Each structure stands twice: as structure tokens, then as C-alpha cells.
What we know:
- This protein is mainly beta.
- Helices cover about 0% and strands about 50% of the residues.
Amino acid sequence: xxxxxxxxxxxxxxxxxxxxxxxxxxxxxxxxxxxxxxxxxxxxxxxxxxxxxxxxxxxxxxxxxxxxxxxxxxxxxxxxxxxxxxxxxxxxxxxxxxxxxxxxxxxxxxx
Length: 111
């Protein structure tokens, strides 16, 4: 199994950014998938999850209403649409399934 995140970068406060997680060795439509993040000096924290069936989604309170997790079954990817970004959203964002982590993608929110 391999998870490869992309889409990170530098964005101004209030701006949007869309992260993608390309999976190989598993079919994302068959499993629940999650995004986590780790800010400098802090522990890794859960951000969002999409269930394996029905597309049910859950979010950490800190991102609820601003972030949206989704799947693209045709591309076998999981995406995280991030809107109204804040400085405190600055972190390395990781895709997660079972015991597998991606390498992470850096998101920096700064003016």
C-alpha cells in the first residue's frame, strides 16, 4: 500500500487549498479514509474521515464547516478541500488508512 499526498503550499489567510491523496494497493471506495495533520511542536491530530459506505464524513471541531473530505473513485484518490484557512491550520497534512501513512504535504497559511 502506498499513499501519496499532494496539493500543499503557501496560502494567504482566508484562502482555499485542495489536498489529494493518491492510493495504490487499495481501493479507496472500499475503506474508510482519514486525514491527519501535525503542526510544529505539536502532536499529530485527526482532521477528517470519510466512511467506506455512504460517504459519511466526520470532522474535528477545529475544521468543521471549513474543510470537506471526499473521494474520487475513478482516480482512486481522497481529497481534502480546505476553505477559510487560518494561520493555525499550518501543518503537515497526512493521509491515513489502516496502519499506513503518506509522506505528508506541507500547508502554510501566512500573509
